[in-house]
Every structure is written in C-alpha cells, then in structure tokens.
Amino acid sequence: MTNEKHSFLSQQIIEDACEWAIMHGVAFRQADNTARHCPFSIAPMTMEREVYDHLRKVTPLITKLISHVSEDHDFLQASLGDMAKADPFFGCLMALHQQAHGDINNSPARQPLLLMRTDFMDDRHHGAKVIEFNGIAAGMGPFGQRATEFHAFMQSQWPQTYQNWLEDSAAVPAENQGLEQLAYAIATSARRIQEEFNIQGKPTFLMVVQKNEDNVYDQHLLEVELQKLGLRTVRRTFDQLSTQLSTGDNQRLILDGVGAIDVVYLRAGYQYSDYWAPELNESICCHTLSQTRLFIEQHNVAVNATISQQLATSKSMQMLLTMMPAEDYARWGLSLDEAQLVKSVLAEMKPVNTDTIGWFNTQANKHKWVLKNQGEGGGHCVFGEDISDKLSQISPEEYDAWALMQRLYPHERETPTIAVRDVEQTVVGDLVSEIGLFTAYFNGEPMTELDGYAGYLIRSKPASENEGGIHSGKGILDSLTLVG
After folding, report:
1. Quick one: average pLDDT of 69-94?
2. Using CA atoms, how far apart are residues 460 and 448, in angstroms rounded to an integer?
3. What residues does 134 pair with on adjacent strands?
4. Domains and CATH numbers, the chain
5. Residue 113: what are its φ and ψ, rounded to 5°?
C-alpha cells in the first residue's frame, strides 16, 4: 500500500467535496437554519456483481409480498394481535387499522402506494440478508442517487484521489436513479388518481412532515424532482392537517387553500411524538392526530404509507414471514420459486418467550444475535452480552414487542477509506456497508421504469460501531461499484 493511501487529502479537495455536497442538497438543516453537509466517503464501496444482481431480482419480490400482505387485513389483525398488546404504539396502529377495515361493507377508499426500502448487509458467511423492511418514511432515495453522482464528480475532478481510495481499480459504478424513479412512481400514481376524477391541470402531492425537522433537504430534492414532472407539492404536519382537511365530491381529499390532493406521502407517523400535540390536552394520547391519518385513508387518494403497510413492514411481520414455510407465500400470489428467492435473503429470527430466553442465556453464542424492538430508525437494537441484561428487564407482557435476529457480520472494506464529517477527514480502516434497495408498487403493481426497482442507498460505518444511521448514528453516505 502506498504512503499516499495513508496520507490525508489536501484541504482543497475536502472543501471542494463539501461544497459539492451542500450545493447539491446533500445536507441537514441546523437549528439556526444553516446547513451542514451529510457525512460521506471519498470513494465508493465494492460488491460482487452476482450479489447485487441477486438483490435486484429479489427485492421487488419482497415488495410484491409485502404489498399483498398489507392488503390482507384479516391476516394482519390475526397475526399481529399479541405484538399490538405488547407495544403501545403498534396497539394504536392496530386500533386504527381495525377502525379502517373492521366494517366489511365499507373499506377505506385510499389506494396503496408502497414506497419501500429494504435494507441488507452482505454477511461474510451467510451472504446478503435483510436487516429490516422500511415501509413508512423510507427516505433518503435522493441522497442515495446524489452519493453516486458525488463519486462520479470525484472520479472526474480528482481522478488520482478517487483511484487511490477505490477498493478495486476495475470496479464499475452501479447505476442509481433512486431520486428519479421514486419521483416517476409518485407522479404516475398521482396522474392515475387524477384521471379517475376527469380533472386536468397539475396533480398535487402532499408530504406529511415532522415539525422543525432537520432532514429536510432529502425531502426537498424529491419535491423538486416532482415539480419537474409537473406536480404541485405541499408540506404539512399532522397538527396542521387536523384542521385543514375536508371531503370533496366522490371521496376527494381537499386541503384548505390548496384544493384536491392526489398523493399523500408520510415522512412522519412512525412514532408517538409525530401524533402528539400538547395544546390539545387529550385524555387519550395522540388521538386527534392519529384520527387525521385515518381520515386521509377514507378518501380516494394514493397513500404511502398506509396503516396496513406500516404493520406489514414491522419487525414482528418480518419474523412471521421468516419463520413461515415458503409454500405459505402462495396466499399472497408468489410462486414457490419466487417464495424461495425471498426466503434466501431472510436472516433467522426467533420470538422472545420464556423458552428462547432460557436457551439464549444458557446455550446461545450471544454475539451471533441482536435483540430488536419495533422501533424505526437508529437506537433500537441491543447486542452481545447486553441482550441478557435487557431480557431480564423486559416484563412478560412486553415479550411480543421484541425479537431475536441473527446478527450480520458484513465484509469489511479491503482498503481504508476517508470519511468526511463537518469538513474534517478521518481515515477509517474497518468500514462495513449496508445497502438499502428502493422499490415502488401502486395497487400491487410495479410502478417504476425498472420493473418496480428504484435505486439504492449505501450507508457505511466503522465495524466497531453498532449505530450506522447517517442521521442518528456514525454512518456515512456512500455509493456502490461492482466487480466480477
């Protein structure tokens, strides 16, 4: 390895890279309304083309499966009841789901638009396996595409630097249209809704957001892309929507001061705080704002994520689908071959109960497992020896909110890389990566120009760190090159 590999980059290159990131919206908003660039790697990771092709093939099938599971309302109620009792937030979602779908003669008018990110790690021994399904607020597709574009910029502007830090000089960048394909899927769905009402003009896209959120530029990149495709875009919190929505003719959803809405995209709604409005002084937490979500679903509008989709992409459903024989997937329209492809990427999972706790404490290799609850985003996993401590603290009533999952140990990058955070560089020698593949289905049908596939997001982190989120952990934005 050359000495140059170990040397830091010039400040000129770092500033150039950081300014590119800010200029292209790859940033987080600060409390004082300034922006700071996302942390990123200076050169992409490498994956065997065969592994990538397998993930490209299987991920749309996972989305097909989840799409059909999410519309199997009896199955959701029957299979997730215990989890809903153990996790108050999911209990609230299940109650909303029952409200929406409990009346056989009156199903909700919404049309399901499933924008999903399925996250994988390429384990050293077991191959690429699913970490989790993300069916609500499955963002950062725009950042995924921008990371690919950033590395193309580095290759063009600073070719020597790019080559020095590239894992394999023969590696070819993997195409990534995450931003464009998600926008295409949303715009196509919006026009389908609009056509049902025989209306001309710009379709309208409503993004439901969190108040004072810092991850806004990723959202705005998607909005700008939608505007290019002829859509009008608006942003509101659940709190605002609770007083601004009404019903038009033929179950049309109307937003005050804007008019009819064609697509609702939730970048909020995956945690209690998104529904909490202290000034409402409610006797039941979050009732008003969660009813606003239900109200949206009672209208003829494309929705991502529906309450059903959020339930169908939960960790408990992931565990049920993992433990189920492949033959059972036929219920949701998958052939045995398709089912076995899906099963090939599902990592082993076990429910938490008295038997598994006894087994874990006496027989298991504790470092081969991770304990997860139903939470979205970073900070919801327990590792190694800490698992026994956590299991001893969980009451039996809470067991069904948790699951044990095979821990994945991905390949470490063969060469060091430079991570850039807050305009400062660090050499990282043990980088590992997580790949999230985006897919888009509308009413159960693939909705992109790539047969349902819609690009990828790569997040890398030091192997010694457990939390790999760009936003909430030690992760850095990355992109993908292919070899072989």
Report:
1. 95
2. 27
3. 117
4. 3-347+422-483 (no CATH), 348-407 (3.30.1490.50)
5. -110, 110
Query: Given pLDDT bands bounded at 50, 70 and 90, which one contains residue 1?
Result: very low
Predicted TM-score of the model (pTM):
0.95
Give bridge partners of residue 382 from the DSSP assignment.
371
Question: Is residue 222 within 8 Å of residue 203, measured between CB atoms?
Answer: no
d(CA 177, CA 147): 11
- Convert the chain into a string of H (helix), E (strand) and C (coil): CCHHHHCCCCHHHHHHHHHHHHHCCCEEECCCCCEEECCEECCCEEEEHHHHHHHHHHHHHHHHHHHHHHCCHHHHHHHHHHHHHHCHHHHHHHHHHHHHHCCCCCCCCCEEEEEEEEEEEEECCCEEEEEEEECCCCCCHHHHHHHHHHHHHHHHHCHHHHHHHCCCCCCEECCCCHHHHHHHHHHHHHHHHHHHCCCCCCCEEEEECCCCCCCCHHHHHHHHHHHHCCCEEEEECHHHHCCCEEECHHHCEEECCCEEECEEEECCCCCHHHHCCHHHCCCCCCHHHHHHHHHHHCCCCEEECCHHHHHHCCHHHHHHHHHCCHHHHHHHCCCHHHHHHHHCCECCEEECCHHHHHHHHHCCCHHHEEEECCCCCCCCEEECCHHHHHHHHCCHHHHHHCEEEECCCECCCCCCEEEEECCEEEEECCEEEEEEEEEEEECCEECCCECCEEEEEEEEEECCCCCCCCCCCCCEEECEEEEC
Using alpha carbons, list the distances in angstroms from residue 425 to 9, 244, 254, 414, 428. Answer: 8, 46, 49, 19, 9
Q: What's the pLDDT tens digit per position in 380-435?
A: 789 989 999 999 999 999 999 999 999 999 989 989 999 999 999 999 999 999 99
Look-up of token digits 């945690």: 271
Q: What is the CA radius of gyration of the chain?
A: 22
Instruction: Write the pLDDT tens digit of every residue in 141-170.
Output: 999 999 999 999 999 999 999 999 999 999
Number of residues that this document lists for the chain: 484
Nearest to 128 by CA among 176, 40, 56, 65: 56
Question: 3: pLDDT confidence band, cut at 50, 70 and 90?
Answer: very low
107-121 b/e (C-beta count within 10 Å ≥ 16 → b): ebebbbbbbbbbbbb
pLDDT tens profile 247-301: 999 999 999 999 999 999 999 999 888 998 888 777 777 888 999 999 999 999 9
User: Which residues lie below 8 Å from residue 214, measured CB to CB, with a gap of 6+?
Assistant: 28, 29, 30, 31, 471
